[in-house]
From TrEMBL:
Organism for this UniProt entry: Agromyces albus
GO molecular function, one term: oxidoreductase activity, acting on paired donors, with incorporation or reduction of molecular oxygen
InterPro entries membership: F420-G6PD/mer (IPR050564), F420_G6P_DH-rel (IPR019945), Luciferase-like_dom (IPR011251), Luciferase-like_sf (IPR036661)
EC class: oxidoreductase
Protein name as catalogued: TIGR03557 family F420-dependent LLM class oxidoreductase
């Protein structure tokens, strides 16, 4: 088992994210995963730096910490040729510590380039083509590609690592889990659904399984709930809403009726290690072997200390 820390690029500026990554390494986390957004979910979060620049800075200032995107959409805002190059470079400068997490994206981030935001079936087909393009470019030499949605013309990635990055494909259902098994090296999920892991394994998937668990730590439960409600209530709207709304203002409206008690019922909140360990255990029991802790609490440094003192020893035992 490996345990990671979620760097919320919507909630913090780039220098602070680099600092948090260094602190995560010192606190005993195995890796960090960063969200790759153009906009925050809510205006109150107030940030959204370029994730790839942040990852490069983290690679230069850490020693053994694994790095991952959680997740990048390689079809609309980025062309897969750019992601193939970026991921290869990041793998080189991090000495092989990088995992490329990919998914079909959210309108919140992808609509900004003016190419529209297709329906989910089309987005998954585009992701399929994008993964084929990335694999082609990582095989070395010049390549062209003509798919239904994506094109590549006479392109080559010159700087390739000897060992290519793991590609972990985000899956919220069986179709995406099968794609992860077919063209990915691993799976990325944010729900403890046995059906997703089963579909992945049935399709032949046997790589690393990244699962993201939400929680909120604070010295008292009330502060944790209040902070989680302020920054993360959007996450209770569900994927069909989260993937389709275009701007933070829409998420403010969609989450306006979500109460603090709703957040408390969904996320483990407060200082009780047993509650957090139970949530982490759900992901382990369904088959995830890389569990990412996404903390919505108000005190990053306090959470890191809590992880080092209480969670890590219990998880390692």
């Amino acid at each position: 088992m490996q345990y990671g820390y979620k760097l919320s690029a919507e909630g913090f500026g780039p220098q602070e994210l680099v600092r948090q990554a260094r602190l995560a390494e010192e606190s005993g986390f195995d890796f960090v995963e960063i969200s790759d957004h153009y906009h925050p979910w809510l205006d109150s979060q107030g940030h959204s730096p370029f994730a790839w620049t942040v990852l490069g800075a983290i690679a230069a200032t850490t020693d053994s910490l694994g790095l991952a995107t959680g997740v990048t959409c390689p079809t609309l805002r980025y062309h897969p040729a750019i992601i193939a190059q970026a991921a290869a470079t990041l793998s080189l400068v991090s000495d092989g510590r990088f995992t490329l997490g990919v998914g079909s994206g959210e309108r919140l981030n992808e609509h900004v380039v003016g190419s529209g935001f297709p329906a989910v079936a089309e987005r998954q087909a585009m992701l399929h083509e994008a993964l084929e393009i990335i694999r082609l470019l990582w095989s070395g030499g010049y390549h062209s590609y003509r798919g239904r949605y994506l094109r590549l013309e006479d392109a080559r990635v010159f700087d390739l690592p000897e060992e290519l990055p793991v590609i972990a494909v985000a899956a919220g259902g069986p179709d995406a889990a099968r794609l992860a098994a077919e063209l990915g090296d691993g799976l990325f999920g944010n729900e403890a659904k046995p059906s997703i892991l089963k579909a992945y394994r049935t399709a032949g998937g046997d790589g690393p399984r990244y699962g993201e668990v939400g929680l909120a730590w604070a010295p008292d439960e009330e502060s944790a709930v209040r902070a989680a409600h302020e920054s993360s209530r959007w996450s209770l709207t569900g994927w069909k809403v989260m993937s389709e709304l275009p701007n933070p203002a829409n998420f403010e409206a969609a989450s306006a009726l979500i109460r603090e008690e709703d957040v408390a019922a969904k996320l483990p909140c407060g200082p009780d290690a047993a509650k957090h360990l139970e949530a982490i255990g759900e992901y382990e029991r369904v088959g995830y072997d890389h569990v990412v802790l996404a903390n919505s609490g108000p005190d990053v440094d306090g959470f890191m200390d809590f992880f080092a003192r209480e969670l890590k020893p219990a998880l390692s035992g």
